[in-house]
Amino acid sequence: MNSQVVYVLLVEDDLDYGALLRRRLMGKLTGEAGTTFVVAHTGLLQEAIAYVTRNGIDVIVLELNLPDASGLETLMRLREVAPQAATIVLTGRDDQLLATQALNLGAQDYLVKGNFNTELLVRAVRYAFERKQSEQALTLAQECLRQVANQQPESAKSDELASDFDNLLTRMAAQNTLALAQLGSDNPARLHVEKLNQTITLAADLTRRLMNRFDRRA
């Protein structure tokens, strides 16, 4: 992610706390991490929905309890209009059940207010963004692999595509392994990253079997 710009939306009704998070993301550590964060801030769900409808957003840092929405409904309503964005849920307490439910609804991670510093926030946003990219790339790769499987094995294009997918999946596996190493054993997000790694492994196995089939029939 060297020299990469990541667009972040903070959805937090506490203006002072939101300003603090914004400063942390746009602070000195951001540049050292090789990533530039462009951060916007809204305090209401309706404002957030309007913003993501008009602007491209990579990561949403979301307080679940807002003046115009509360609980998991906040996450569900925002994901309906911004399914392409990675989402990190902010909670006021260390509630493992709530965190797991949020992850099951599509969030990439969660943070407990008061329990993280600047480094952890920056890392969480970067890895949430990378995991979302991996999920989207994996979905695309699986669809393309199905198309490749239906092509004639003698097609040189099929062989090249399968090789490209194999390289892509290898990079994705390495990226997710790095993210997994940063997650604590008690973090509910760990299970989701592990499942993503398992899916990548299965897709890579399918790709290599297709490549072997092309080699045998060449």
Report on the structure:
The chain is an alpha/beta fold and 218 residues long. It folds into two domains: 4-125, Rossmann fold, CATH 3.40.50.2300; 129-217. It contains eight helices and five strands, in the order E-H-H-E-H-E-H-E-H-E-H-H-H. It has a five-stranded parallel sheet with strand order 2-1-3-4-5, with helices on both faces. Helix 5 links the parallel strand 4 and strand 5.
Low-confidence stretches: none
- Biggest beta sheet attributes: 5 strands, parallel
One letter per element, helices H and strands E, the order comes to EHHEHEHEHEHHH
What is the beta-strand fraction?
5-15%
Named at the architecture level, the CATH assignment of the largest domain is: 3-Layer(aba) Sandwich
| Net shape | elongated
Q: Give the number of domains.
A: 2
Ends apart, CA distance between termini: 38 Å
CATH class of the largest domain: Alpha Beta
Summarize the SSE layout with pairings.
Layout: E1 4-11, H1 15-25, H2 28-32, E2 35-42, H3 45-54, E3 59-63, H4 72-81, E4 86-91, H5 96-104, E5 109-112, H6 118-149, H7 156-182, H8 189-217
Parallel strand pairs: 1-2, 1-3, 3-4, 4-5
Helix pairs in contact: 3-4, 6-7, 6-8, 7-8
Q: What can be said about this structure in brief?
A:
This protein is α/β, with parallel strands linked by helices and 218 residues long. The protein has helices at 15-25, 28-32, 45-54, 72-81, 96-104, 118-149, 156-182, 189-217, and strands at 4-11, 35-42, 59-63, 86-91, 109-112.
Question: Main attributes?
Answer:
218 residues; alpha/beta; Rossmann fold; 2 domains; five-stranded parallel sheet; elongated
